[in-house]
Amino acid sequence: MILLISDLHLEEERPDITRAFLDFLAGRARSAQALYILGDFFEVWIGDDAMTPFQRSICTALRALSDSGTRIFLMHGNRDFLLGKAFCKAAGATLLKDPSVVQMNGEPVLLMHGDSLCTRDEAYMRLRRYLRNPISLFILRHLPLRTRHKLARKLRSESRAQTRMKANDIVDVTPQEVAQVMQQQGVQTLIHGHTHRPAIHKLQLGAQAAKRIVLGDWDRQGWALQVDEQGFQLAAFDFTPPPAPSPH
């Protein structure tokens, strides 16, 4: 059994999501052969050298899962593209390129974060090309911490403001781009996150039936895709309520 999740946007301000994720790691993920986290795992990541105690606690929990025998794969999202080798090594995780083709249930499956499929959002695509350029990445990683914090806050607030103003179809994937990428990679199944619109879409690629599976974001509930001999099963689950305070 393989599990895939994305878009947890982990941050200290959302202890409910953190608690749900730690429960997920200690429970369901323990029986998985592999766990794939397809980007935007953290709400913000300004560099492995800037890990907070909160982020270290997540790293420790991932390491415990890895040590228990579940393989962990991490992919960059648009929020945490500065996640690096140091974090992955400490967490016992493997950093996956976006896109990556992996074998699941005897077929090649394309894994992506999904933001590169939103080609109608031209302003975002320009910013993405700039930020992911190796020279930009090198400069970003070597900026003083204070500057990185400031830049991250600015990018987050701008991103939220612009997303609210953009039409729904602009911030969703471009169907032609999806078809083109799938045909280039020679796959009939694509799994991605980013859009926060969980669904299994049936597609036709030439003469072949295909599918695009969109993982859900963790907000009021969690989402996970389970891949096993039954096929691909996408389902939400409720967060368990916090333990009641003990009576004095």
Automatic annotation (TrEMBL):
Residues engaged in binding Mn(2+) 1:
7, 9, 40, 196
Q: Which cofactor does it need?
A: Mn(2+)
**Which annotated residues bind Mn(2+) 2?**
40, 78, 113, 194
Q: Pathway, according to UniProt? A: Glycolipid biosynthesis; lipid IV(A) biosynthesis; lipid IV(A) from (3R)-3-hydroxytetradecanoyl-[acyl-carrier-protein] and UDP-N-acetyl-alpha-D-glucosamine: step 4/6
Q: What is its main location?
A: membrane
Enzyme class, UniProt record, top EC level: hydrolase
The parts of the chain that form a coiled coil are none
Q: Write down what this protein is called.
A: UDP-2,3-diacylglucosamine hydrolase
Q: Which organism is it from?
A: Pseudomonas batumici
